[in-house]
Amino acid sequence: FACDATAVANSKSVWQLLTRSILIFFILWATRMPAKIKSVSDEIDVVVGRYRKMRDDYKSFAKYIGDLVGSQCRKGLIHTTQFRAKTIESFERKCYKTNSDGKRRYRDPLSDITDLAGVRIIVFVKESVSTICSEIGKILNVREIEDGNCSRLV
After folding, report:
1. Distances in Å between the alpha carbon of 82 and those of 100, 107, 122?
2. Which of 3, 5, 12, 91 has the most CB atoms lying inside 10 A of its own CB?
3. Contact 82, 119 (CB under 8 A)
4. Secondary structure class of 123 (helix, strand, coil)
């Protein structure tokens, strides 16, 4: 294997130039990336702070709806009515969710996340579900139901 001194010197220079370029690129990428991540994190922190201030209102609203449904629907059909506001931790986790393309799923979490308050109605027998759903549909504008038996009523 034969090699002259000029070729070795040039290859070292090229290698040094290449490694410097890679290092500079990495430094530029590394300094920009945290800023992007930090801005998303900061943005979500602000939204979570807003939800934290509003959470008691969502809880009161859910309680009101639960009480309304309990008082307006046939008493003998409902076993229990439960209500809840989404926990702050759960809200924050949902804010960070992404789609398969890597973009955030909820661009405006306070508007896009639809389960900030929820009411669960437990009936004695399965056959009562469609009756309760029909009665709820008469008093409320229902957007989403998690029970397949009521989906035709939405």
Report:
1. 34, 30, 8
2. 91
3. yes
4. strand
